[in-house]
């Protein structure tokens, strides 16, 4: 007798979109200092990209470029918030300048003459 091969569709459960944010904030909430990305990666078993992505998407987590790390926003000092704001605005302005420069080059028809 031939056995039938049954195929079952895998049912996807809807995941809470803020679950990762909650996990990250749990790691930061009781810490007053900056928490290194490597510490969060080990504790959460995430890679550095996921830590950056979740932190960036959260309204409650700030990050510092380099090795300083991440902090729950309610634990940040006014000076840290000011530094965070200035660094992000400076980076955004540099990205805008870069984009406009490259669009001008594209419109000019110039080619690289290395």
How would you explain this protein's 3D organization?
- The chain is mainly α and 114 residues long.
- The chain has four helices and two strands.
- A two-stranded antiparallel sheet has the order 1-2.
- The termini are far apart.
Summarize this entry quickly.
With 114 residues, this protein is mainly α. Helix content is 52%, strand content 7%. Strands 1-2 form a two-stranded antiparallel ribbon.
The count of strands amounts to 2
CATH class (first level) name of the largest domain: Mainly Alpha
How far do the termini sit from each other?
A: 73 Å
Q: In percent terms, what proportion of residues is strand?
A: 5-15%
Mean pLDDT: 91
SSE succession: HHHEEH
State the major sheet: 2 strands, antiparallel
Brief descriptors of the model:
2 domains, Arc Repressor Mutant, subunit A, mainly alpha, single chain, 7% strand, 114 residues, 4 helices
Detail the topology: elements first, then pairings:
Elements: H1 19-28, H2 37-44, H3 48-57, E1 61-64, E2 69-72, H4 78-108
């Amino acid at each position: 007798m031939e056995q039938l091969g049954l195929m079952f569709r895998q049912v996807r459960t809807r995941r809470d979109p803020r679950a990762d944010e909650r996990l990250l904030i749990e790691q930061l909430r009781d810490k007053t200092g900056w928490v290194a990305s490597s510490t969060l990666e080990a504790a959460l078993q995430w890679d550095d990209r996921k830590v950056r992505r979740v932190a960036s998407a959260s309204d409650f987590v700030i990050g510092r470029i380099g090795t300083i790390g991440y902090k729950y926003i309610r634990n940040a000092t006014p000076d840290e918030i000011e530094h965070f704001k200035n660094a992000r605005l400076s980076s955004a302005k540099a990205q805008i300048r870069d984009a406009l420069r490259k669009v001008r080059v594209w419109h000019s028809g110039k080619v690289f003459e290395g």
